[in-house]
Amino acid sequence: MRILLSGEVFPDSFAENVGCGFQELGHDVTHTADFFKQMGYGRMGRFAEMLATLLPQVEQKAQLTLVRAAADLQPDLVLCLNQPHPNVIRKLRQEVPRARIAHWMSDALTGFFRQYNLASDYDVMFFKDQYIVDFVREKLGKKCFFPPQAANPKWHRRMPLSAADRDLYGCDMTVAGNLYWYRALLMEPFLDYDIKIWGDYSPDWMNSPVRKIYPRRYVAREEKAKAYGAAKIVFNAMHYAELLGCNLRLFEAAACGGFVIVDHRPNIHEVFEPGKEIVTFQGRDELKEKVDYYLAHEDERRSIADACHERAQRDHLYPTRLSQMLRYIFDDESTASS
User: Fold this and answer.
1) Among the four residues 53, 141, 259, 336, which has the most C-beta atoms within 10 Å?
2) Structure pTM?
């Protein structure tokens, strides 16, 4: 099957990992992104992206790279991991009328921005949060489904650690991700611990003391796996807009063999069993209590991490998830497996 993926590709990005999953299933994958995304994150790229945001006509022209790529490829499936303008999706249908066109959103509710996805004519949409799926189905009558997020077995796995790796990545607790107030406030009680934070965005206006230990260093692929595997605890503070869903970090850390402490969600038991495969917390006091407990109980920590790793590698890898999604997209199991 020829698949065109629309989304920004960089090391360990959502688009890169989805592409790897389709390739492992034996499909031909082509990536595309809008013109300004192809310019990267330098000053010119950021300026161009800001210009496109302010001027919808410029934005749509930049996104026509998707239409041109589809016209050249004539894919069986176009999967948008970003949010092209509805007019772009309309033109896409004219160019490839026989292709299925789907959307998979990996962001929480706050990432909807202008809600282009809701206004676009997709055959099917996928959201990471059951709340969004239920809402869009009920209010708009759209065909949409809830696939949990996933991990890429190519590099989200247990990695051998050298002495140098353990020195670089080893710590009591690690965190990977952008820094915002909710996450910073949860982390402030642990400033005296051996903690390592990985991420490349820390806003200058945030005056939290956590910024002092924020390295602005992005880890990806095998390096991320080593960071998760070498830490005693992987702390996962999910975004406050994750209502009935879980973030990518949970699945990636689990697949890498990390011991994960994550803030509770009502349906988290559907993907991992609390107390057996992961540990959850409700607030800062409980988080502090559980971090201290599991730092002092290595055998329990390792047992939970092993169970979590086994579950992730069995149930939560991209090839498995994408096979399920293809059946929804094509309404035909034989087509999905071809």
Assistant:
1) 259
2) 0.92
At 62, the amino acid letter reads: A
According to DSSP, residue 317 is labeled B
Strand 28-32 versus strand 279-281 pairing type: unpaired
Residue 227's contacts (CB-CB under 8 Å, 6 or more residues apart) are 169, 174, 176, 196, 198, 219
- CB distance 256 to 287 below 8 Å: no
Q: Is residue 156 part of a domain?
A: no
DSSP state, residue 173: E
Q: In a 10 Å sphere around its CB, with 0-12 CB exposed, 13-18 middle and 19+ buried, how is residue 142 labelled?
A: middle
Based on the number of CB atoms within 10 Å of its own CB, is 282 exposed (0-12), middle (13-18) or buried (19 or more)? exposed
Please state, in angstroms and as integers, the Cα–Cα distance from residue 168 to each residue in 89, 230, 232, following that order: 46, 9, 13
d(CA 129, CA 258): 23
Task: Reduce the DSSP state of residue 70 to 3 states and report it.
Answer: helix
Under the banding of pLDDT at 50, 70 and 90, the label for residue 49 is low
Rounded to whole angstroms, what are the CA distances from 245 to 81, 218, 231, 332? 17, 24, 25, 27
Q: Which pLDDT belongs to residue 333?
A: 42
- Asked if the structure places residue 157 within a domain, the reply is no
Tokens of 13: 């990005």
Taking residue 10's Cβ as centre, other Cβ atoms within 10 Å add up to 14
Verify that 31 and 116 share a domain, yes or no.
yes
pLDDT, residue 263, reads 95
Q: For the chain, what is the domain count?
A: 2
* pLDDT band of 36, cuts 50, 70, 90: low
